[in-house]
Amino acid sequence: MTMSDIKTEQSTYDHIVKYTGLFGGVQGLTMLMNLVRNKIASVLLGPDGLALVNIYNNAVRLVSESTNFGISISAVKHVSELFDTGDTTRIREFAITVRTWTLYTALFGTFVCMVLAPWLSVWTFDNYDFTVTYMLLAPIVGMGAVIAGEMAILKGLKKLKTVALISVISAAALLVISAPLYLIWHIDGIVWSLLACQAAILIIHLHFSTRAIPWKTALDSKTEFKAGLPMLKLGIAYVLAGIFGQGAEYIIRVMILHEGTQADVGLYISGYMLTVTYASMVFVAFEADYFPRLSATSGNIQRQNTTVNQQIMVSIQLMAPFLSLFLMVLPVLLPLLFSNKFTDAIPMAMSATFYMFFKSALLAAAYLPLARGDSKMYMLTELLYDVCIAIAVPYAFSRWGLVGTGWALSLAGMVDMLFIHIVYRFRYHYIINRRTLNIFAIQFLLFTAAFIATQLAEPWLKWPLAALAFAASISISYRFLSRETTFVAKMKEKFRNRKS
């Protein structure tokens, strides 16, 4: 490797860490506000109320994924490609196409949700009592389609700081809006809270996106209608994959509800939320920058493999020490962030941490079909995973209770990781390099050691061993950041300047 190659690689790692740090910090603030909101919800609503919030959200997302035609994903790819050409006229023209199609899907999705309302009530609760509730929630689907379209435009334009700012403001708005409604109306305020929060998020997105490109649509234009059709090739596959994903989540919650109680659903959700949803913010942090960058490799195998391996390397180095620390603080964290009513979810949350570790090693590679426009492969991998998880989690709950659901998630994550890395090797000539494999193996062993230590009964042995595994993991990550990036050096320099 030449000196030029070394500098280029270091520059790439700096870029990844920079934007992961940017969005990671933003997601940290967002997570903090979401934690406060969920704390308020868990105290005021309890496990039953938290279950209802999640069930409603999941049903709405299922309809949304079924009707949005994947515009939000395919639009990012097209806008990003146009942005690289520097042709502002074509970008503005395509923005009109995106917005026109998002309005089509918004109207369609709202209508479908209203039509399906009786069936959603029956499928979930075995009665028609919640039909009006699901009809009231229908506008959330339409607003979500517009929000996704505006976010796609901003991501394609690489307005990453704006995307980050929107995330923080939206989280603050959700907290300010939902907390008073829960306090005043308790469970009866859930529907109005969801509607008001979605409306606020829509206003925030439109405020920023229209400053980048002024709002304009052409609903009655045949030209715009035809111009948006190419987006549907990848988009339809994304719709089907979204249906599989949200359908799997919907099935899991309904099956737990039928096998157990509404409180069991709330406990599962609290464990899932803390281990999977919040930890996934690290991945959200790099997705906004990574997907357009991967799409820009344009099928160049060497650039593709380098981009994916670098992203996996950073992802593992960030996630491994975080998960080890998470295991140590979880017994205190979960009751603190929710309430003492949720302590039964701790074993489930701990067993699900392996799922997040495997996800750190697969997610960068999982974007390959989207970046290559390979809709069939993307749909196939999503279908296989979702079928696996929809069967494994309810079965594990029926046999081993909540802790079984955590292990089922982790097993599904491992199978998904192996499947993607093996199949994509043949499909896209993707190869995970030896260095990345070594880092994965070392960090996995240290994380496993931390997990085993936290399961020990003797506190005098548990905490020192877990702390030792965490210290070893974070030292490896620190050494990586010191050698491969200028991030640590810059932080030291800032610290010295402040001190002086």
Account of the 3D structure:
The chain is mostly helical. It has one domain. It is built from 19 helices and no strands. Helix 2 runs antiparallel to helix 3 and helix 3 packs antiparallel against helix 4. It is globular. The two termini are 39 Å apart.
Report the mean per-residue pLDDT as an integer.
84
Total domain units: 1
The dominant shape is globular
Assembly type of the shown chains? single chain
Task: Report the radius of gyration as a whole number of Å.
Answer: 23 Å
Approximately what portion of the residues adopt beta-strand conformation? under 5%
Structural class, by secondary structure, is: mainly alpha
- Cα end-to-end separation: 39 Å
Number of helical stretches of at least 4 residues: 19
Order of helices and strands: HHHHHHHHHHHHHHHHHHH
**Tally of strands:** 0
Quick one: biggest sheet? none
Unreliable stretches, pLDDT < 50, 5 or more residues? 1-11, 21-25
Helix content: over 70%
List the helices and strands and how they pair.
Blueprint: H1 3-67, H2 71-85, H3 88-125, H4 131-156, H5 160-185, H6 190-212, H7 222-227, H8 229-259, H9 262-277, H10 281-295, H11 301-337, H12 346-351, H13 353-366, H14 368-372, H15 375-400, H16 402-428, H17 434-454, H18 459-484, H19 487-499
Attribute tags:
mainly alpha; 500 residues; disordered N terminus
Question: How would you briefly describe this protein structure?
Answer:
Helices cover 87% and strands 0% of the residues. The chain is an all-alpha fold.
